[in-house]
Every structure is written in C-alpha cells, then in structure tokens.
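Subject: for your reference before the review

Hello V.,

The reviewers asked for a structural picture of the protein, and I figured it would be easier to keep everything in one thread rather than splitting it across files. Below is the amino acid sequence we used in the manuscript, unchanged from the supplementary table.
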Amino acid sequence: MKTRRVVVTGMGLLCPLGNTPDSFFDKLIAGGTGIAPHPNPEVAKPVGMVQGEVAGHFTKLQQLDLDRVSQLSLLAARQALGMAGLVGPLGNDAGMFFGTGAGGIESIEHAYASFFGRGNDDQKLLTILSAMPHAPASQVAMRYGIRGECQTYSSACSSSAVAIGEAFRRVRDGYLDRAVAGGGESMLSPGVLDSWNSMRILCDDPESAPGTGCRPFSGDRCGFSLGEGAAFVVLETLDAARERGVRVVAEIVGYGVSNDASHMSRPQPQGQVLAMQRAMAMMRGKPHKIGYINANGTGTQAGDVTETKAIKMMFGDHAYQMPVSSTKSAHGHLVGAAGAVEFIAALMALTRQVVPPTTHWACRDPECDLDYVPQLGRQVQNLTHVMSNSFAFGGSNASLIAQKLDG
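And here is what came back from the structure prediction:
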C-alpha cells in the first residue's frame, strides 16, 4: 500500500503552565511550574490546574452536558483548528481521535455525592452523557462536523499518544484526509485525588515542604503531582497542507506501540524498547538521528530507572549524547492527556530549537545517568528529529517521532 506523508498543521492546549502552545512553552523553558495547592484546603497534595476562565466560554445550557474535561477539550480543539485555518463542517474525510484515562470523572463523583447524601442534592439530568469517556470526542466532532470517524482510546497514561498515533495511521494510509487528535483529563476532585494518594505516589508541595515536589530522574525523587488539561494537534497530508498554503509545524514519521504484559504498576524496559523500536522502524532512520527525547518521566523510583534502562537499551552510546527530559515536574501528570501535551512540547522544541528542562531536578541517581536538562531550557542547533514517549499503568507503551519538514 502506498502511504502518504502526514504533517501537523495545528496545535492547541490548555494546561497548568499556559493556555496556548506558546505561553506553555515560554513558561516551561524558563523553569516555571503550574503546580500549586488545591483550592480545597482538605486536599493535602498540590495539583496542576488550568488557570483562567473555562466554564464561562459556554452558556448555562451548554454546561448541562459538558463535564470540565469536555470544556477543556472543546477549547483546545478550537485553538488547534484555528491555527490550521480550518472551520467546520470538516465532513466525511476528517476524523476525531481522543485519549483519556477517566473521561468525565468529576461528573461521576458529583453524582455519587448526590446519591449518597453528602450535601449535593442537585443531581444533574445529563450525568451519563457528560461523564462517559467518549463525551469529549463526540462534543468536538459535533461542534466541527467531523463525520469520517470518531474514536476514543483509554490506555491510561498513553491514551492521547495512542490517539495521535492512530490518527496518523488513518491519514497516512488514505482512510482520512485530516484528523483532530489528542486528549483531555480533569480528575482533580477530592475523592479521585484521595484514591491516587492511597497509592503513595503523589508529591508534597515544594513551597511548604522544601526538598519535595515532582523531580523526575533526580536521586531524591518522590513521585508526581496530578494535573488537568487538554491538547490536540491537527494532522493532514503534506499535499493537502501545501495546497491550502498553511504553515507546517512538523512531519510525523514514526509511531510504535507495545504492551508489557507483566504488571499493572511495575514497568518493564523490554516493552518500552519495543515501542521505540517500532517507531524507529517506521521512520526508517538510524537511532543517532533522534536529537531529543521527551520522556515519560513520572518521578517514581522504579519508573524512572526502568525508562532510563530502556533508553540505553534502545540507543546504546547515543543515549548519553542526546538530551532527555520530563516536563511532568512543571505541569503535573495529566494522565490521559499527558501524551498529547508532551508531544506538543517536543514539537515546540523542534520549532524553536530549544530543549525543555526537567524542572526541579536536583541530584544524580547512579541508575539514572543521562542528560536530563536540569532546571532551564537549553538552546540547541540542528535538532531535526524528536521522540515523545508515553508509558502507562497496565504496561501500554507508545512512542511518537516527528521531524522538521525536509521539503
């Protein structure tokens, strides 16, 4: 089968570091953070919340069936399509691909609180329609007349990376001409956070407890902070982009997925290597072409060691020659939306030739011995290929590769 070249022509996001790709990346490379105490004083752990107005962009009637994750997703998709110069209806040749870990879980928690009589007696009529994981994808598809297909993927922390990869495949193989792809997550309600905290992988607030906070690959790492947000890219064929005369951000040249099939929360390097190998095989290039890896880097003790091993197994000596960073310390772990936000970070690195840092990295771990770009972004030259990795609970792995357009 003859395949087509697929490019990114639009990006949009809302996340704790910023509500546009540029504002997000500016704060990221400056060593900023979007992690802060939860507005509910009963929640002990800090979180990453989207700042600014969200619900106010929608009428009271629209809000009835829009969980916060759908609201964030609609706003991020609008940005991405605006950058790509596209307006609806997009028709039969366009697809919507969405990744999320839990969908409208805040609506579910509200419903449980109402049912069990904990002070919320305003049960929402449309709880099911706003809470289902597929709701954000459906809302975006309806808003922009996307009729080719509409898919939702839920593979924990790799969900939106898988969504982008599967959208890439559909466009590359001729099933669609363009796609909106990414993900969204908003699970910062007290009950959900309490469940995460029971796993003992959430960090304390570095402002109130110095020496804590998310710091991937650092010898004193202690886990991560949860964040919320949504991020999307617009994908289309290179020929279509050139015909429309729009700016091309980058070309997607590799996508690989795999599964550990070993343990729900203890990753294995072999599965991660397999995802990277498959992405590299699709790219048909040598490992040394990769000039930067946006790592999964959750800041957990076992996870960061495993990922470092996997990168060294995949790249050999080249692993020590290229920068590897995790941006989760700055914006939090966005779970199902993490892959899309971090892929945009990698695309911005390619565009600006600046590698984002691992914020808060403090000290070496003998088992994590790569160049993690501590604290501040780093100007680079001749960065042509970037890789973005997403490795999830349950062992679902995804790797994406993008390159500067070679003409």
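For the response letter, the relevant points are probably these. The mean pLDDT is 95. The first helix runs from residue 21 to 29.

Happy to draft the paragraph if you're swamped.

O.
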